[in-house]
C-alpha cells in the first residue's frame, strides 16, 4: 500500500462505484483510498502457484478461491482490502460480486515495501473477520512461509515453515511441500537482478 491519494473523502458506496473505473487498484480505509503498487514477477508467480494449489484442492467443495483482484470487505462498509489470495467457503459469499466478507484463509506475498504493513496494520484489519482461521505470509525472496492460525482459545499462533518442510493449511485441509509455492521461480536470479 502507498500513501493516500488526494481525493475527497469517499463513502463506502462512492468508493465501490469509483474504484472499478480506475486504471489501478485502490484499497479503502476510513474514507481514504490508497493506491496499490505493482509487484515483481516472482511475487505474481508465487500468488499464482498458491491459488492453483488451493483451486485444485477445493474444486467441487463449495469454496471460492480468489486471487489478487478480489477485495475483502472487513465490514459491509469497509475497510476494503486486496489480498494476494483468499478462500471463502461461507454460503453468504456465494453470490458476492464486489467483495467477499467471510474468508477462512487469506494469503499475502511479502515484498520489502509492504511486509511491515502486511504483518502489522493489514493483519490487524483482517483479524476483525470472525470467519478468518488462517493468515499466510509468503516470502518472495527466500523459501519461507509464516502461517498464523486462530487456536481454540481465540489466540493467533505462528507456525513458520522453511526449506524442505510440508505446509499444512488446516482451514482448507491442504498439505503440500513448501517448494510447490516456488515452482519454476529462480529466487537467486530475482535477487541478483534487484541488486544490479
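-> sequence recovered:
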Amino acid at each position: 500500500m502507498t500513501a493516500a491519494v488526494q481525493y475527497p473523502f469517499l463513502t463506502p458506496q462512492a468508493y465501490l462505484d469509483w474504484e472499478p473505473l480506475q486504471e489501478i487498484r485502490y484499497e479503502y480505509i476510513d474514507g481514504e483510498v490508497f493506491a496499490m503498487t505493482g509487484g515483481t514477477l516472482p511475487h505474481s508467480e508465487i500468488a499464482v502457484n498458491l491459488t492453483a494449489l488451493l483451486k485444485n484442492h477445493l474444486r467441487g467443495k463449495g469454496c471460492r478461491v480468489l486471487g489478487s483482484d478480489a477485495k475483502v470487505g472487513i465490514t459491509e462498509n469497509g475497510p476494503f482490502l486486496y489480498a494476494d489470495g483468499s478462500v471463502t467457503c461461507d454460503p453468504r459469499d456465494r453470490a458476492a460480486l464486489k467483495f467477499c466478507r467471510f474468508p477462512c484463509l487469506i494469503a499475502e506475498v511479502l515484498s520489502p515495501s509492504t511486509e511491515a504493513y502486511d504483518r502489522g496494520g493489514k493483519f490487524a484489519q483482517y483479524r476483525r473477520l470472525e470467519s478468518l482461521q488462517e493468515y499466510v505470509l509468503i516470502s518472495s525472496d527466500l523459501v519461507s512461509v509464516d502461517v498464523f492460525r486462530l487456536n481454540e482459545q481465540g489466540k493467533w499462533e505462528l507456525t513458520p515453515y522453511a526449506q524442505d518442510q510440508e505446509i499444512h493449511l488446516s482451514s482448507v485441509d491442504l498439505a503440500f511441500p513448501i517448494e510447490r509455492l516456488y515452482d519454476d521461480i529462480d529466487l537467486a536470479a530475482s535477487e541478483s537482478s534487484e541488486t544490479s
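The first strand starts at residue 26 and ends at 29.
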